[in-house]
Amino acid sequence: MPGATTPSVGGRVVAVTGACTYLGGELLRALEEDPRYTRVLALDVRPPAQTGSASGQGSKIEFVKLDLTQPTVDGELATLLAHAKVDTFVHGAFLSHPTHAAEWAHELEDVGTMHVLNACAGVEPRRFVMVSSTLVYGAHPKNPNFLTEDAELRGHRDSRFVNDKVRAERQVQRFAKEHPNVEVCVLRFAPILGPTVSNMYTRFLRRVAAPVMMGHDPLMQFVHEQDAAYALVQAVGSHATGPLNIVGKGVLPYTTVLAMLGRVPLPMPHFIARQLTNMLWATQIVGSPPSFLDFLLYLCVADGSRARQELGFSPRLSIKRTIYDFLGIAPEDGATDTARASL
Cα-atom radius of gyration of the chain, to the nearest Å? Predict the structure, then answer.
């Protein structure tokens, strides 16, 4: 049954890369409280907050230092997975915002995914879940109103931040074909917004002023950080396979989002905005590269129907509530949603 959770028989062992990311941390917290899971390996270069004294003496979470940029890490990881009898692998070691250290980012995301899949190829866990982004579809003038999971992964001609994620997804697609015994699921998250998460969009939207491409006002789509974390927990405990778009409730025009945030719109031609952004990015004054401007030009909105059908995931929090929570203010009358009490 699509989206059905695994029976509560206990004994499941999960390994999580990117344990120090927002999603990784929320997943660890949920697995710690779920009796179906008896052991959780938190794989990262530093311990997440959920390990150590903060998680209690009887914590099932074990930190294992692992650097996916190291050339021999696949053998080390394969040995670890076999010894711990890991049945579910969650790969979330991906950057949430671009970096000037492009070569290191490529080693982490593209080559790091290769290391992970090499390790899993020899062990074949029952389930493999990877964190991705709707940005892999790319912002393009020919995009339909809502992109389904079958849409082409266009990426971006100038963005290694996006294209490394596209390459990682293609590796996982090949792995799924070569290892049919492994349940492979890829979650493509819309830009995550909320009061605690930090990524490219939250940094951009915290600025006092924001560029607006003259003649363009594309629809924006976000997913609340609570809904995003809930979707990942659901995916780990389900049998859903294939790519799934994880999106929030509703969309709004870019200029409406800026107005709700109280930001100052700066209308300008695209070629001027690109030159200015290129200079500001090169001098590290802003955290958004020039390639990001294409997402202010063209539509990149995903359809969440398949996640609802296959995973049983429906967002609880609307785009308006998401924006209000990001701002840290109480929502207006009629804009409230039912928040998840827990994951």
Answer: 20
Instruction: Look at residue 290 in the predicted model and tell me its pLDDT.
Output: 84
pTM for the whole thing?
A: 0.91
Rounded CA gap, 65 and 69, in Å? 12
* DSSP secondary structure letter of residue 236: H
| 111, 154, 245 from 242: Cα distances, Å | 21, 18, 10
Kindly report the CATH class assigned to 12-263+282-327: alpha beta
Look at residue 72 in the predicted model and tell me its pLDDT. Answer: 93
Amino acid sitting at position 129: V
Amino acid sitting at position 185: C
The answer for 221, left when phi > 0, alpha when psi is -120 to 50, beta otherwise, is beta
- All structural domains of the chain with their residue ranges: 12-263+282-327
**How many whole angstroms separate alpha carbon 83 and alpha carbon 15?**
12
- In the chain, the DSSP E strands lie at 12-17, 37-44, 61-65, 88-91, 127-133, 183-189, 192-193, 209-213, 219-220, 223-224, 242-246, 252-253, 264-268
Separation between Cα atoms, residue 212 and residue 96, nearest integer Å: 23
